[in-house]
Design goal:
Number of strands: 0
Number of domains: 2
Largest sheet: none
Low-confidence stretches: none
Order of helices and strands: HHHHHHHHHHHHHHH
Distance between the termini: 35 Å
Strand content: under 5%
Helix content: 55-70%
Shape: elongated
Number of helices: 15
């Protein structure tokens, strides 16, 4: 029997994409727990159906998956992959027909032992399932277990990217402003980069104006450092003004395709915004069909 799928939103797409990534990475280990004749069926569910079980799939695989999802002692990675598959199916309205509340009660501590990206993916799966009433949890996941990255480490990485702006590049950034304010912007930019790297600590205009302008120009030499500066501010405020949500909706392909060393830090910063705020909503106002077709999710982090 199918449950209703969770309403489509960026958060839904991101949670399911992360769960699928966990399953894909753990597919070989998961298959090892099944009878040989069931492996092609499992591969089809994962590769072709996006971890969505049909009634026939559920009849063939459900008990095996539930067993692996209840045996962390038989391999933590396989246990987590099975759990991720069942959660992805549940959130997509598949035929798995188990709300997994017992699993959370019994194994919440084991989920937290997984590698940070996997742990965060599974905990976000349970959090969304609870929030949308697909799972009824007495104590739903909260706090740092939901975060892939340590906040202090992330701030350090983004600060390094921001401060990579050379003097010449800083001049290029400030040329985005009218000529009569460039010197003021340059002084403010230097002060910000030499100080906290938090734009909001340095007023509402200098150097925010030029940083925000350059962070909208992927071809600009200062694009990555400006984006890092903006991210540091947005992380501190949980993107209260939606500045990074807007940029993800407009520029996500550019972030994903970056070839510089800054890519990892910027994607980590965007992921942190998603993980720390259930209400973070790039693509606000988009219809569900358009979201499914065109929205870009944050690539899964490497363990």
């Amino acid at each position: 029997m199918r449950s209703a799928p969770v309403p489509i939103s960026f958060q839904t797409l991101q949670v399911v994409a992360d769960l699928r990534a966990v399953v894909v990475a753990g597919a070989d280990g998961l298959a090892a727990h099944l009878a040989a004749e069931k492996e092609p069926l499992l591969r089809r569910v994962i590769d072709d159906q996006g971890c969505l079980l049909s009634a026939e799939d559920a009849e063939a695989l459900r008990e095996d998956l539930l067993l692996v999802a209840a045996r962390p002692d038989q391999g933590l990675a396989d246990f987590l992959a099975a759990t991720a598959l069942l959660l992805a199916d549940r959130l997509q309205g598949g035929a798995g027909a188990d709300d997994l509340y017992w699993n959370w009660d019994a194994f919440a501590g084991h989920y937290r032992k997984g590698p940070a990206p996997v742990r965060a993916a599974v905990l976000h799966g349970f959090r969304l399932a609870h929030a949308t009433r697909r799972v009824n949890l007495e104590h739903p996941p909260e706090g740092r277990g939901l975060y892939t990255y340590d906040a202090a480490d992330l701030q350090r990485f983004l600060t390094l990217v921001a401060r990579s702006l050379s003097p010449v590049q800083r001049d290029h950034v400030c040329r985005s402003a009218p000529a009569d304010t460039r010197a003021v912007h340059r002084t403010a930019l230097d002060n910000c980069l030499d100080g906290s790297c938090r734009l909001s600590d340095y007023g509402t205009w200098f150097p925010r104006e030029v940083v925000e302008m350059v962070s909208l120009q992927p071809e600009h030499v200062g694009f990555a450092p400006a984006t890092a500066l903006l991210l540091l501010d947005c992380i501190a405020t949980r993107d209260a003004e939606g500045r990074m949500a807007f940029r993800w909706a407009e520029l996500a392909p550019h972030y994903v395709q970056m070839t510089s060393k800054a890519r990892g830090a910027i994607l980590a910063g965007v992921r942190h915004l998603y993980e720390t705020s259930p209400d973070w909503a790039p693509y606000a106002g988009w219809a569900p069909d358009r979201l499914v077709e065109k929205a870009v999710v944050v690539p899964f982090a490497k363990a």
